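Box 4.2: Ligand-aware structure prediction
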Amino acid sequence: MKIVAADVIVSSPDRNFVTLKITTEDGITGLGDGTLNGRELSVASYLRDHVVPLLIGRDAHRIEDAWQFLYRSAYWRRGPVTMAAIAAVDVALWDIKAKAAGMPLYQLLGGASRTGIMAYGHASGRDLPELFDSIRAHLDQGYRSIRVQTSVPGINAVYGVAAQPSTDGKRYDYEPAQRTPLPAEEDWDTRAYLRHLPGVFEAVRNEFGPELPLLHDGHHRMTPIQAAKLGKALEPYDLFWLEDCTPAENQEALRLVRQHTTTPLAIGEVFNTVWDYQTLIREQLIDYVRSAVTHTGGITAMRKLLDFAAQYQIKSGIHGPTDISPVGMAAALHLDLAIHNFGIQEYMRHGSLTNEVFRQSFSFTDGYLHPGEQPGIGVELDEEAAARFPYQPAYLPFNRLQDGTVHDW
Ligand code: EZ4
Ligand code: CO
């Protein structure tokens, strides 16, 4: 089944997305997500200028061969742009194979290992009443697991906290990328954060009881000893996980954190290959793998990574913010349903314009996601709708400390 066309579609309904559409000689099309938040056009160029010409004429069924060819023939290894481009091709080819087989993709990955996919949502508040309202709103929407992010006294803008409350049941989520020509500057103070956070979790536990799974994202801001201190301080509140407690490109740092706390650790949304996890997994320094299908080479590479993790009882926690398109989200859901070592799936929900461009068959009922039964991954792209929303420059913010030093965001 020869590939006859491959098109890169960049669109910006609510936010920017990069989508690859591969067409075969018998008219089957497959979609892949290559969205890299704030660096979208670099993946679009990588695909258009360097990958699409290599795809024409190839057999769409040879997915493993395409993956190895794109990874090894580039010579230059790894990196978010390369791995997002490979992911887009990989997922589009899996979509095609599953459509050709007349099955939802999860059937080709071994079939369902569970009936539904536990999802967590993002609650946030600038103070406790606002945070409690946000948690209640998520519970009303059906979420059974909730990430808690909070403002910190003395810090103006904190990652993960919506700038305005949800009013009249109207949806308002935190969207980190802003449509600005330059990255917005935010401020940060780790000591203030460490003083404030345990009290917030104590208040949330007192209000909502011991059962509700609660998560928190440290977003790469702590040193190892600060992360160890926070993990220890949060132990009474029984977190489901503490995410990205350090900038984990130094994998060995997690040894120190691990020695001090039993709070479960989740890491990896900024990683893009199994090599970024080698020490973390082999030494059992984490509990959840946070990679996105979109940023880690697609279904083919994620399956291998999660099978490696499974040998150490480490589970999946696939990255699912709004900067993963519905195509990348659907791909994650098929994998979530099929693997044995599923942990939890992040699910922020996309806006209404995004849902106009990407027609989806996945569902969210009583806190559980399901990819649906459509052949393939179950997402169709409305190209006319996509064309109505051209690319708009948008960037993630960055941090400076009080003395002006740039800090991890
Ligand atoms: O900040 O995906 O756990 N989720 C996250 C996300 C990331 C964004 C960056 O593009 O940390 O909200
Ligand atoms: Co995160």
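In the box above, the bound molecule is EZ4. The two ends are 45 Å apart (CA to CA).
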